[in-house]
């Protein structure tokens, strides 16, 4: 079974309560991608998906804790380091940004975020400061023009096109 390795740190779909109704503060911030870092991050993801498909990621509250506590954690971190990242903490913002940008381009996730922003702005029960904080958190999930270009270029690259389609269609 293919696992999504806890990439979605921020809710985008209506399958759960709206982001602003959840108690936990979103931990996601979009990173600016370069073609090199996006490709290396995705290559690391593919290695992890292949080598750790049966790992019990769901038993840990974060990928960082998996690395620290799971028997396979050190091997996973080594795979990430082999792709040029300092560790899981450096890799996660990049792969999350690839995923969110890909979702915005292929799965209409940006429209979901924009709809949630509109809902927050229209919510008369929220105080102005809380609205501003929530809107800023949601806006963090909207990819920059640069990130759109980097991921669009990856989608056009035969070496990545089909793999990215599989990545964006995983549940």
Task: Report on the architecture of this protein.
This protein is mainly alpha-helical. The chain has one domain. The chain has helices at residues 35-51, 63-69, 73-82, 88-106, 109-122, 128-139, 145-156, 161-169. Helix 1 crosses helix 4, helix 2 crosses helix 3 and helix 4 (88-106) packs across helix 7 (145-156). The termini are close together.
Helices and strands in order, then pairings?
Layout: H1 35-51, H2 63-69, H3 73-82, H4 88-106, H5 109-122, H6 128-139, H7 145-156, H8 161-169
Give a brief description.
The chain has helices at 35-51, 63-69, 73-82, 88-106, 109-122, 128-139, 145-156, 161-169.
Q: How many beta-strand segments?
A: 0
Number of helices: 8
Query: What is the 3D form?
Result: globular
Number of domains: 1
Regions with little confidence, pLDDT below 50 for 5+ residues: 1-26
What value does the Rg take, in angstroms?
17 Å
Main sheet characteristics = none
Strand content: under 5%
What's the average pLDDT? 83
**SS class:** mainly alpha
List the secondary-structure elements in sequence, H or E: HHHHHHHH
Oligomer: single chain
Helical residues, percent: 55-70%
Q: Note the gap between the termini.
A: 11 Å
List its traits.
171 residues, mainly alpha, 58% helix, disordered N terminus
């Amino acid at each position: 079974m293919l696992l999504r390795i806890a990439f979605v740190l921020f809710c985008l779909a209506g399958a759960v309560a709206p982001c602003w109704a959840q108690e936990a503060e979103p931990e996601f911030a979009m990173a600016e991608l370069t073609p090199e870092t996006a490709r290396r991050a995705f290559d690391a993801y593919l290695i992890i998906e292949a080598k750790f498909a049966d790992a019990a990621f769901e038993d840990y509250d974060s990928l960082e804790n998996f690395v620290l506590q799971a028997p396979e954690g050190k091997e996973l971190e080594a795979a990430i380091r082999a792709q040029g990242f300092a560790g899981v903490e450096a890799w996660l913002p990049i792969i999350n940004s690839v995923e969110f940008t890909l979702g915005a381009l292929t799965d209409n996730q940006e429209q979901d975020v924009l709809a949630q922003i509109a809902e927050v702005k229209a919510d008369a029960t929220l105080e102005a400061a809380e609205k501003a904080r929530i809107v800023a958190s949601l806006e963090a999930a909207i990819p920059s023009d640069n990130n759109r270009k980097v991921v669009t270029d990856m989608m056009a690259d035969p070496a990545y096109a089909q793999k990215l389609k599989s990545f964006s269609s995983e549940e």
